Amino acid sequence: MQVTETLNEGLKRGYQITITADELESKVNEKLTEAQPEIEMKGFRKGKVPMALLKKKFGTQLLGEAMQEAVDGAVSEQLEQSGDRPAMQPEIKMEGENWKEGDDVVVSMAYEKLPEIEQPDLSTLTLEKMVVKADDEAVEEALSGLAEQAKNFEDRAEGETAESGDQVTMDFVGRVDGEAFEGGSAEDFPLELGSGQFIPGFEEQLVGVKVGDEKVVEVSFPEEYGASHLAGKAAEFTCTIKAIKAPAAPVLDDDFAKQFGSESLDALKDQIRERLEAEYAGAARAVMKRSLLDKLDDLVSFELPPTLVDAEAKQIAHQLWHEENPDVHGHDHPEIETTDEHTKLAERRVRLGLLLAELGTKNEIQVSDAEMTQAILNQARQYPGKEREFFEFVQKNQQVQQQIRAPLFEDKVVDYIFELATVEDVEADKDALKAAVEKLDEE
Questions:
Q1: Vertex 347, ends 343 and 352: CA angle to 5°?
Q2: Contact of 193 with 203, CB cutoff 8 Å
Q3: φ, ψ for residue 243 (rounded to 5)?
Q4: In angstroms, what is the C-alpha Rg of the chain?
Q5: Comparing C-alpha atoms, which of 228, 55, 252 is closest to residue 143?
Q6: Is residue 114 within 8 Å of residue 354, measured between CB atoms?
Q7: Which of 12, 243, 273, 307 could link 169 by a cystine bridge, Cβ 3.0 to 4.6 Å?
Q8: DSSP 98-155
Q9: What is the pLDDT along the chain (443 residues), one digit of tens a residue?
Q10: How far is C-alpha 137 from the chain's CA centre?
């Protein structure tokens, strides 16, 4: 095997690899010799088929295998000798259009290698960590939210009319062009006015009804309604009002707390406080992580593989375009051009991604099997009733596993840096934390 360097420019590398015909023939003969004892052929005892006959029957097939193995081996050997780590899969091309058996095999290999990255002195970093305590006002606000979830309805006094927020129980029959349609009727149906459960304009027309009223509600189905035969159609719903109930706030006592698994109202408040402070801590970590990444971006500088930057810029442009055009799904849209802004953001992401990966590798940071399993289970909960199917899908899909592992690995590397850096606690209130998080979204 002969290797000739053809390109050495920045991170770009190119090589021409020549595998001689004698090398290929030797590999084919090795394969035939290895397989000969197990081969049976009519007219010959097992293992006694002449080599010349085996070569005639299987030689072409084995030559292809030998060629592929030789090329793969040559590529691996060259990368091992050079110490290069390709940023992306090397591009391998066979040279010569009229290759025939007996000729040398010449292939070209091209790639961009990952840059050498020196680990910065992480102990010089100083970070601020926002510490926010859940005050009584925040706890009471969260408690009110729970009360809203647990609200009851009590019958209105006889003759009182329905108001927005009331629960109206009714029988109704819906008609389009004078004909009742499937799914347009119900009995004893409870509807909370203002909930938006029914099509636009329906619930508002029930404000002011009394028990015993028969109200004809006139509405039009939205143009984008799920049932195509009803989309855009005008409809009438004849509603017979059977009961009207006003919302009644629950009594915030120990019995109320037990609905949420707490022994007492005080215990429930303690749980709420802990949950809020855990949420605050998570948000504060996100703010501190952004600050860390900003500092690291200023701290390091190294050459970036152009292909990685280009791929990342295209991904950013594509994502932003879909955010601006939410009605377009899939990839049936005009080609999206990348801008200098996309490229600048891509350079930052690639630089930080390579740096964090290098820090993680050099410091032997790994995501354990237990951590991966827990992360998969957490995602599986998003598919109630299909958790097992999701888990099995992930187990069989290496790409999905990598998508789950990548953020876990990044967070572990970030935590490692936090331990080395100087972290100063800064007391703050929830409004300041909220403003800091909103600033992250703006950037």
A1: 150
A2: yes
A3: -160, 150
A4: 34
A5: 252
A6: yes
A7: 243
A8: S--TTSPEEEEEEEEBPPP-PPP-GGG-EEEEEE----HHHHHHHHHHHHHHT-EEEE
A9: 788 999 999 999 999 998 888 888 887 777 777 777 777 777 777 777 777 777 777 767 777 788 888 888 888 988 999 899 999 999 999 887 777 777 888 889 999 999 999 989 999 999 999 999 999 999 999 998 888 877 789 999 999 999 999 999 999 999 999 999 998 999 999 999 999 999 999 999 999 999 999 999 999 999 988 888 899 999 999 999 999 999 987 888 998 899 888 999 999 999 999 999 999 999 999 999 999 999 999 999 999 999 999 999 999 999 888 888 887 777 777 888 999 999 999 999 999 999 999 999 999 999 999 999 999 999 998 888 888 899 889 989 999 999 999 999 999 999 999 999 999 999 999 999 999 999 987 76
A10: 35
**What angle, rounded to 10 degrees, do the helices at 398-420 and 369-380 form?**
120
Identity of the amino acid at 422: T
Contact 305, 87 (CB under 8 A): yes
Residue carrying the six token digits 């280009």: 310
Q: What is the pTM (predicted TM-score) of this model?
A: 0.71
Q: Sort 233 into a burial class: Cβ within 10 Å, 0-12 / 13-18 / 19+.
A: middle
Q: Hey, which bits of 277-354 come out as E strands? A: none
Amino acid identity for residue 406 in this structure: A
Any bridge partners for residue 2, and if so which? 18
Q: Which residue is associated with the tokens 């770009």?
A: 12
Cα–Cα distance, 322 to 317 (Å, whole number): 9
In the structure encoding, which two tokens stand for residue 20, read together?
Answer: 């001689």
